[in-house]
Amino acid sequence: MARSAILNVMVQAAMKAGRSLARDFGEVQNLQVSLKGPGDYVSQADRKAEEIIYTELRRARPDYSFLMEETGAVEGSDGQHRWLVDPLDGTTNFLHGIPMFAVSIALERQGQIVAGVIFNPAMDELYTAERGGGAFLNDRRLRVSGRIKLVDSVIGTGVPHLGRGHHGDYLVQLRNVMGEVSGIRRMGAAALDLAAVAAGRFDGFWEDGLSPWDTGAGIIMVREAGGFVTDLEGSQDVVESKFIVAGNEAIQRALLKTLKKPI
């Protein structure tokens, strides 16, 4: 596949950060960990990966703005472009030695995601997408699944934990979905959940309490693989939305309807 210059920059930054994470993953028990919030940890590896990505992207496009999980917003002189960066999506998995974590980088232009990269170094899986150019896994073209009924579907989700989310609302949603589908999975990294939808591994996905750095790359991944991503109200303007519902056309619509049912 042919990549644009900007996507090559993003891939280079993601893989360089990913190699750093892979080295630290091998020494996970020796990492110094600080507590960022209830059940939400940040490690030296996380901060180091973010610095690598920032340095690489800033060198290539010095005027672009940033929104990063750890550092927050960094304003650039170019008001049209913004990087959305999660240097380690799946921090809890990482710290527990579970190889389901990823680097996620998206490029936003005038409020629209135009390119995304998701890299899981533990599994050597590189997902890339550009607007109008399709989505790929290690250079293999991706398509969302072709299933059209919830009863045949495996659905990904994010489960709220200590200090996060509305547990009561989620349990209503989970009960409604449980009765309609073939299976429910929880990976622990929203970027990888959305990548799984793009790859047809998951037929759909929903989660609340997300941030732009969690979903930016995954949104374009799903859409370029032929899928749909909206918020709970069905709006496609989801970059700043905390609630994401994704899938192919039929499953996304059915999942959205199921999630909105009363108990």
Automatic annotation (TrEMBL):
Gene Ontology BP annotations: inositol metabolic process; signal transduction
Xref: InterPro entries: IMPase (IPR033942), Inositol_monoP_metal-BS (IPR020583), Inositol_monophosphatase-like (IPR000760), Inositol_monophosphatase_SuhB (IPR022337)
PROSITE patterns xrefs: IMP_1
Keywords: Hydrolase, Magnesium, Metal-binding
GO molecular function terms listed in the Swiss-Prot or TrEMBL record: inositol monophosphate 1-phosphatase activity; metal ion binding
Enzyme class: hydrolase
Keyword Endoplasmic reticulum among UniProt keywords: no
Signal peptide residue numbers: none
Catalyses which reaction(s): a myo-inositol phosphate + H2O = myo-inositol + phosphate
Cross-referenced Gene3D superfamilies: 3.40.190.80, Fructose-1,6-Bisphosphatase, subunit A, domain 1
Enzyme Commission numbers on file: 3.1.3.25
Superkingdom of the source species: Bacteria
One Pfam family named in its UniProt record: Inositol_P
Necessary cofactors: Mg(2+)
Binding site for Mg(2+): E69, D86, L88, D89, D214
The family this protein is said to belong to: Belongs to the inositol monophosphatase superfamily.
Protein name, per record: Inositol-1-monophosphatase
Lineage: Bacteria, Pseudomonadati, Pseudomonadota, Alphaproteobacteria, Hyphomicrobiales
